[in-house]
Amino acid sequence: MSNSKSFRHYLERPGILILPGVYDCLSAKLAEQVGFEAVFTSGFGISGSTLGLPDYGFLTATEMLYSAGRIAQSIDIPLVADMDTGYGNALNVIRTVEDAIQQGISGIILEDQDWPKKCGHFQGKRVIPVDEYLSKLRAAVDAKGDSDLVIVGRTDARASLGLEEAIARGRAYFEAGADVIFVEAPQSAEELKMIAESLSGIPLFANMIEGGKTPILSGEELAELGFKIVVYPLSGLFAATKAMRDCLQQLRSRGTTAGFDNLLSFSEFEAVIDVPKYRELEGRFLESG
């Protein structure tokens, strides 16, 4: 079964699917090794880790697809990738969808922000007219053909146009062919409940960002409200950044990492990146000659 088909299977079964955010191949492999069934890449995480820049639309389509594609190919579980606005009009969206499928990506998020977009929890977002987004969404649905690619229709209308408009857009996006609906950045648990009640029967996506505009709820709490997918897109990135900063601060201040406990051993890291596998291959194909 393909990863995309597996992901569709996960959406059809009871319960909620919890996806960790990953931002490179290493973080994706760790998520797979600890037992997650699928992973998620965000524009915020890719922009921060590859460019050292905030999620202000600096990433090009090529950069995003290259990063997400490498991650998808490094693991054996589905990857859902943030593809921002699709990087242009309906024709550009077709190219983005075709490339995502070719890269082995199992699901994409397509949002209705104006370009250049911003992180969904930043100020100053703008959204495009509904009809303009629907043309892009329909193009995406057509471009995926008979593949099992999952399309997540995302609206950022809550910030500038209010929750009622965001919910109305979510319903329209589902009717136009989106498989899952993502109303970004609701500002309270009550708003999350309103979204779930208003869009009952539609697979819903929730985004939990520590320090963001939406309160952090558990997967169990979100499942009770009626959500199908919840992502924690930046938790791993924030944790890794803190651990790395702490390590570097000790090295700078003490001149050594001795006594710093938050490190894998050399052999533990070898296991993460499959060194034993490649040692065995080396023995079979190189040393035998």
Question: What would your notes on this structure say?
Answer:
The chain is 49% helix and 12% strand. It is of the alpha/beta class and 289 residues long. The chain has an eight-stranded parallel sheet. Strand 3 (79-82), helix 5 and strand 4 (107-111) form a beta-alpha-beta unit. It is globular, with a radius of gyration of 20 Å.
State the share of residues found in helices, binned by percent.
40-55%
CATH architecture type: Alpha-Beta Barrel
Number of strands: 8
CATH homologous superfamily?
Phosphoenolpyruvate-binding domains
If you compute it from the alpha carbons, what radius of gyration comes out, rounded to the nearest whole angstrom? 20 Å
Domain module count? 1
Assign the CATH topology: TIM Barrel
Structural class: alpha/beta
Number of helices in the DSSP assignment:
13
Overall geometry comes to globular
Strand order of the largest sheet: 1-8-7-6-5-4-3-2
Uncertain residue segments: none
Helix and strand succession?
HEHEHHEHEHEHHEHEHEHHH
Our estimate of the beta-strand percent is 5-15%
Give the averaged pLDDT, no decimals: 95
CATH level-1 class: Alpha Beta
